[in-house]
Amino acid sequence: MKMENLASQLKRGISRQFSTGSLKRSLSRQFSRQSSLDPRRNNLRFSFGRQSSLDPIRRRNSEDEMSVPENLDSTMQLLFMACRGDVKGVEDLLNGGIDVNSIDLDGRTALHIAACEGHVEVVKLLLSRNANIDARDRWGSTAAADAKYYGNVEVYEILKARGAKVPKTRKTPMTVANPQEVPEYELNPMELQIRKSDGITKGSYQVAKWNGTRVSVKIFDKDSYSDPESINAFKYELTLLEKVRHPNVVQFVGAVTQNIPMMIVSEYHAKGNFQNYLQKKGRLSTSKVLRFAVDIARGMNYLHECKPDPIIHCNLQPKNVLLDNGGKLKIAGFGLLRLSKLSADKAKLARPDDQLDPSNIYMAPEIHKDMIFDRGVDAYSFGVMLYEMIEGGVPFHPKPAEEAVKLMCFEQKRPPLKIKSKSCPWELRELIGECWDQEPLIRPTFSEIIVRLERIVASCTKQGWWKDTFKLPCLLLQEMRGNLSSLGKSKNQTRISWEVPILISSFQTFIFEIVCYKLDLNKILNHVHIKRKKKR
């Protein structure tokens, strides 16, 4: 029974500090640096004795468990003999043709194992058989680093004399002393592939691949590691991202905090941010405005209702809203501004001189004035975004942004909606006016905004506001008239007479299918032609 337990330990899954199944899918990539020696790779983990010095969870078996398990393959036998310090056993296996650089699932060689345990003679034997002295395991540790970590001075000196390179300390400001304290969100940096052509831009988001999935990665600026404020800002952003889960909020994937560089990883959206979309599309239809407004309001309401404390965005604007492949909007960019919490719902900017942007027209007046604020600042930003969606431009465009901010925040002026009344429900106009009101108490909460938006949607549906989502009958009939004319001029087609009553009747029959299934014009014409024949 004891032997069975030991053998089963060798087949344990991936340890919890790294994402499940990631190593099996990326072995060839992770250990490519050792490919010149072509080591034999093993799909088992050697879990006996001392573990890698860089393994966040170092396991240690008791001495009485060190009897040889049955049914071990050649690689695991070699690692086991190296762990026991059995020089004769290691030599016999090497003479039998086993590759001295064979590795287990974690990329550990016999030299790693012997260096951890301090077996000098085994180390000398392995080196005499051309063991790769600089082979790195999955955590980037070498035999020399392991020997130094475990205080095996003699082994370390032997390896160093042979030219072993000891990796520099890669501790980060968030490195934990106790391996059990490694955060659950911690990712293995070797699983992230950032294209070299893209480079690494400090403090910016970049596209990368994580286990075959495209993700967005924010690289923490190395120059900020010694800046307590920057570290606190990084931790604050992580704290917020870790606890949010909502369809209209960008999804947090994980982070790298125990290795350099530190990174925050979130879901990637190829369609980019909402700002790019608005610049491309300009003025949006009423139906789209309401659909997008509901998405933003739901995401913001979730953030504001987070427990124990609400998350105040403070920088809600189109560039901090992402558009997914299904056309849904997701809130991003929260947690970027450091706040000084005065109470559960009251705050101030921690560093206004560094955080205030005088050209940010989406920021509420109380932020620009460096006053105490609450969740109402996000409702103000939402009102400005609503205006931009409806009008196709920011308030007071084309005035300079700084001048527009002055008019809005310091002179309490608001631009009129230029769009015709019949193209924008008065309830929506009223909502914009309340959202960007100078007085925070008048601004509605996002839970109230959602209710009002849904009411407007229902009202528009009832009153036929959605006519801009498909072509009006007269426009469709004009297209059909042109199509029929072209058919009549064809050599193999007879001229089809134009009968408006029949076409209108056919349009009424087919209108539901046009909207729901987007039928092409030829199918509609076919149907019209059949109806026409029947009436004759």
From TrEMBL:
Keywords linked to the UniProt accession: ANK repeat, ATP-binding, Integrin, Kinase, Nucleotide-binding, Repeat, Transferase
Enzyme class (EC, first level): transferase
InterPro entries: Ankyrin_rpt, Ankyrin_rpt-contain_sf, Kinase-like_dom_sf, Prot_kinase_dom, Ser-Thr/Tyr_kinase_cat_dom, Ser/Thr_Kinases-Pseudokinases
Any one GO BP annotation for this protein: signal transduction
Residue span(s) of domain Protein kinase: 190-456
Record EC number: 2.7.11.1
SUPFAM superfamilies per the UniProt record, alphabetical: Ankyrin repeat, Protein kinase-like (PK-like)
A GO cellular-component term linked to this record: cytoplasm
ANK repeat residue numbers: 106-138
Pfam families the record matches: Ank_2 (PF12796), PK_Tyr_Ser-Thr (PF07714)
Reaction(s) catalysed (UniProt annotation): L-seryl-[protein] + ATP = O-phospho-L-seryl-[protein] + ADP + H(+); L-threonyl-[protein] + ATP = O-phospho-L-threonyl-[protein] + ADP + H(+)
GO molecular function: ATP binding; protein serine/threonine kinase activity
PANTHER family referenced in this protein's UniProt entry, alphabetically: OS02G0608500 PROTEIN, SERINE/THREONINE-PROTEIN KINASE TNNI3K-RELATED
Family per similarity comment: Belongs to the protein kinase superfamily. TKL Ser/Thr protein kinase family.
Protein's name according to its UniProt entry: non-specific serine/threonine protein kinase
Lineage: Eukaryota, Viridiplantae, Streptophyta, Embryophyta, Tracheophyta
